[in-house]
Amino acid sequence: MTEREDLLVGNFPIVPKQKRAQQKRKALLESGRILFIDKGYEQTTAKDIAAHAGVATGTFYRYFSDKRQLLMSLLEDRIEEFFPPEPSWSTPDPVSLLAKMLEEHGKRLNKLGLHRVLQELLPKDPELAEAISAARRKIQTRIYSGLKQAFEKGWTWKDLDFDTVSWSIMTLVENAHEKEVQGGGHVDYYQLAKVICRMVFPPEVHKE
Amino acid sequence: MTEREDLLVGNFPIVPKQKRAQQKRKALLESGRILFIDKGYEQTTAKDIAAHAGVATGTFYRYFSDKRQLLMSLLEDRIEEFFPPEPSWSTPDPVSLLAKMLEEHGKRLNKLGLHRVLQELLPKDPELAEAISAARRKIQTRIYSGLKQAFEKGWTWKDLDFDTVSWSIMTLVENAHEKEVQGGGHVDYYQLAKVICRMVFPPEVHKE
Amino acid sequence: MTEREDLLVGNFPIVPKQKRAQQKRKALLESGRILFIDKGYEQTTAKDIAAHAGVATGTFYRYFSDKRQLLMSLLEDRIEEFFPPEPSWSTPDPVSLLAKMLEEHGKRLNKLGLHRVLQELLPKDPELAEAISAARRKIQTRIYSGLKQAFEKGWTWKDLDFDTVSWSIMTLVENAHEKEVQGGGHVDYYQLAKVICRMVFPPEVHKE
Amino acid sequence: MTEREDLLVGNFPIVPKQKRAQQKRKALLESGRILFIDKGYEQTTAKDIAAHAGVATGTFYRYFSDKRQLLMSLLEDRIEEFFPPEPSWSTPDPVSLLAKMLEEHGKRLNKLGLHRVLQELLPKDPELAEAISAARRKIQTRIYSGLKQAFEKGWTWKDLDFDTVSWSIMTLVENAHEKEVQGGGHVDYYQLAKVICRMVFPPEVHKE
DNA sequence: CATGAATGAGCTTTCATTCAT
DNA sequence: GATGAATGAAAGCTCATTCAT
Q1: Domain A10-75 falls under CATH 1.10.10.10
Q2: Could you state, in order of their start, the residue ranges of all structural domains in chain A?
Q3: How far apart are CA A127 and CA B28, in angstroms?
């Protein structure tokens, strides 16, 4: 991760040591986050962010080399938060556990709020796209191995296609959050968890 | 749909009558499509499109009032193509049929290629977002009633949550295409179809 | 006048001989006049004029080298109409005669309607400005000599300043029309004529 | 007037506080004035003005929302200066006083120099036209009542038409300045004053 | 001759970024 | 360090004029 982060964020203005400066930096980050979410990345200008943070335009550039870098800093170490943790299957009630996890993940994404902004950027920023892609692959790999373990314990469908199923789980989990945002009715996380479990386990295992 | 489409596209420069002009218009549309896909919507300028089509900037504005309208023309009457047809369950081999449908849908999307562009635009263009949303709702409604019929015939899980499952199917189908694009290996449409069927039918029905 | 006109109009497209062509030319002139008056010179495009005249854009340029030349043709031989004829003083009732002349001049200007357009152009077109200026000088000279004759007959004030008075008459007459247009109440031409006569004749002459 | 002025000028970029900025603003205003007078309003671009003021294009837009607003700032609180003060008749030597007033007004107009520019704008800018019109009405009303007072004191012609005469005075005074500009020889303000007085007073009053 | 599509210079305006104070 | 005025490249769009048909 570290290498990738460095790549993304660059090492431009050394994170300043003073308290004051730290506060300004934080204010800028927070203003950036708010405005990006509110108006979109492209529609938000450096001037806007500076004004919202109560500093001068020029100050923006003391802390960030440009708008992109601010966004990257916002994302720093958090890209993984955009993706769900791997579900745990070795539990008496995987459906409830999964439901809970889904809900928490949804909340986390809503709190970050940058989901949309990322989508806006992907076409323009191959580097970011690659970072996202890497994070996604990483998670999917974890899900994959989780599935494999469950398989080895004989819990899953015998013909489980790890690849397809792990991808399906990822996809549903990632999009559950969007569904909620779009106001297309709230997601019933429990039902979704059930559906996911059906993709993985044959019915007889459920009773276990 | 037709009314909404008209709304989106407007009736700006009447589609010209001459052959030549038609060719230029087509060239512009095609150049727009290529550049939008290649560089993203925001990064593509009217000038770029004109240059790529081998015409002068002003010519662009003969045929389209602006970039957005070109995109809308590109989308005209095609919004529904972005969404899958509803799967049919009443068939001897729903998995294969579904797999075939998924593949065809993926091909169609790849041919259009505008999937990403749409995503870039959605946050900024509420009108488009609404059109997309309507199309999506329409399809999902169809899937929903398909499920209901299957349920009434007693084929599905007894506790099927139509809403959650129809949404899950939509989501997987919509994203299958993306998986392919991202180069994460080809999608195994057959496996995906199997997973979807497992969300819907209990195993004993599969044998039927 | 001829030389000046040639200067203004240029000798670009030889006035065409055919009837058809003549009609198109006239239609263009008339459309130009209407649109110039309605929207102003700058706001009217060659395309507008052609469309209004029911011909193609290119046709415009067959008859006129450009927008300016159309305007000049509109003005051709008419610049003098923008200015009043010299008043005649040797008449039993100069006030009534003058009043009548003022009214007729006002009507003529309203009919042409290009007064405003000229004003719009003067700053940009020194050549036109010069032509206007020359025409004005010409009229003023006539008024001047009319006054001189009246003076020599002993009718006017003994200390009449020909220059000032002829200029004043010109100015009032030229602006009377504008007053009417601006809707600042109709001009009472008879009262205006009386005022002008008082500038010229002492009261005892009036009784004559 | 103040309200109307505020309306015209808007309150776009708050007049900046720093000295430097004030200078740039002034430089832009002055450059605008010069170029408007020299080339006309329409022929002058924002870029021209910026270049003439020695600043970048973008700087223009820091201080003015557009060309029009610059002109409006140039006019701010000055519209009345374009019109003469009302003449005073109750004085031992109204002719000389009037002559002096005319000359001063002429000088003031020449200093502003924007007379022509206004004329260019009037047809296109109804708001400005209304402001001008209001100012003109105001002055004319004052002249009107001045005449009425003189009439009541028995100084004027018995059949004085206040309306026509006040309009005539306005018109002559407004245009006197133009005469000078057009290089038709300097205006003899004294002679003009005499002419105006003859419009108002019968000869026997002059001796008083 | 007529047509109207095509051209491209040029105008307005915005905004990321710099730099004098 | 902080400030915010200044910069100028670049985007969107218009329109006088040309030219292939």
Answers
A1: no
A2: 10-75, 79-206
A3: 29
